[in-house]
Amino acid sequence: MSYRMTTRTTGALRRLAIVAIALGAAAVGPAAARPAVAQTVGATEQAAAQEVGAEWAIAVHGGAGTARRESMTPELESRYAAALTAALEVGGEILASGGSSLDAVEAALRLLEDSPLFNAGKGAVFTHDGRNELDASIMDGASLAAGAVAAVHHVKNPISLARRVMEASPHVMMAGVGAEEFALEQGIELVPATYFFTESRWQSLQRAREAERRADAEPVGALGDRLGTVGAVALDRHGNLAAGTTTGGMTNKRFGRIGDSPIIGAGTYADNRACAVSGTGHGEFFMRNAVAHDICARVLYLEESIGEAADAVVMGVLVEQGGDGGVIAMDPEGVIAMPFNTPSMLRGYLTSEEGPVVEIFRE
Ligand code: ASP
Question: Buried b vs exposed e over 168-206: b needs ≥16 C-beta within 10 Å?
């Protein structure tokens, strides 16, 4: 189902291509153009898809996973759609009024972090020992400045702490207790660990522990555990790209495991010359392949379109290695690609020309 709240089209000169990727139809895009993409564009010919103009654009994801239409109630589906739409609209308002892509990314992700629906902030999954351990990162495509936090337990909005690391410290990444000391010093909101308790995530942990006891455990990282990481990419009216990603990681994770989401170049990357990317999926594969940076490097050095580059990595490299997941990616013209190799990826976009459009399943 496509949740098309409003659609505006103009004769703008700048280009926007919403590119359908992955198995013929993994991306969202203007409904009229989508069938043409599916029929005529092969997995690596996405660049030839439609091109329309966008002065500003934002895309968000709510995680890649195994959810299938049959297994999701219409009520839950519309709650996800409403949350993603609200995030797009918050970011879109900032962009429409001339605000920065960094502000749009942070505002959209804060909203999703505050929702119990997503595996980030309030709705974060539990570690093996019953804690919530949060990771986040943000990057400014104009300056290549970046900030990240990992394994924090009391930060209500890790994306804002990541931004503070970027803007108020000489560092790129802080972890654990040190990151929380910095948060305190910076006046970032801290909450008791109990704030992150949600019954559904707790039950997921109990199921994972039980499966482990029965020795029929799916390995940590099983797709079902991961739906809900959130990310955003945006282009502002000044031509600046930004990207951010925030997550609770994987249910039942142990030993201080940190995934790709807070790793610049793996889960998040932005460079005004090439693209902005936020990933979701099996983090170990995203780290080994420096997925977000690889997509931008392909655009920059191989001169691939954003659709070709994102497709080559998500549907090529990752699939060959068994790495589940997807990305949202945007180029400096506001062209958006959203390939994923899982049954579903919560995703949506809003641009100066169109949207918000939100989709969940492969259609
Ligand atoms: N990439 C995240 C991690 O590995 C999880 C996800 O995106 O679902 O921590």
Answer: eeeebbbbeeebbebbeeeebeeeeeeebebeebeebbe
Which DSSP category does 264 fall into? B
Q: What is the pLDDT of residue 153?
A: 98
Alpha carbon of 103 to ligand 1 centroid (Å):
23
By most ligand atoms within 8 Å of CB, the mutation choice from 118, 134, 225, 226 for ligand 1 is: 226
Q: Which atom of ligand 1 is nearest to the CA of 225?
A: 8
0.85 exceeded by the pTM?
Answer: yes
Give the Cα-Cα-Cα angle 186, 166, 146 (nearest 5 degrees): 155
Give the distance (Å) from ligand 1 centre to CA of residue 237.
Answer: 30
**Domains of the chain, start order:** 37-361 (3.60.20.30)
At 53 the pLDDT is: 59
Structural contact between residues 300 and 274, judged by C-beta atoms closer than 8 angstroms: yes
Q: What is the pLDDT of residues 196-233, one digit of tens each?
A: 999 999 999 999 888 888 876 555 555 555 568 999 99
Kindly state the average pLDDT of the residues 107-136. 97
Which residues are catalytic, by number? 229
Q: How far apart are CA 147 and CA 136, in angstroms?
A: 8
**Do the beta carbons of residue 325 and residue 314 sit within 8 Å?**
yes
The answer to whether residues 105 and 231 touch, using CB atoms and an 8 Å cutoff, is no
Sort strands 230-235 and 134-140 into parallel, antiparallel or unpaired. Answer: unpaired
Q: Ligand 1, residues 61, 245, 250, 253: which to mutate, most atoms within 8 A of Cβ?
A: 250
CA distances to 100, 104, 245 from 97, in Å: 9, 11, 23
Average pLDDT score, the chain: 85
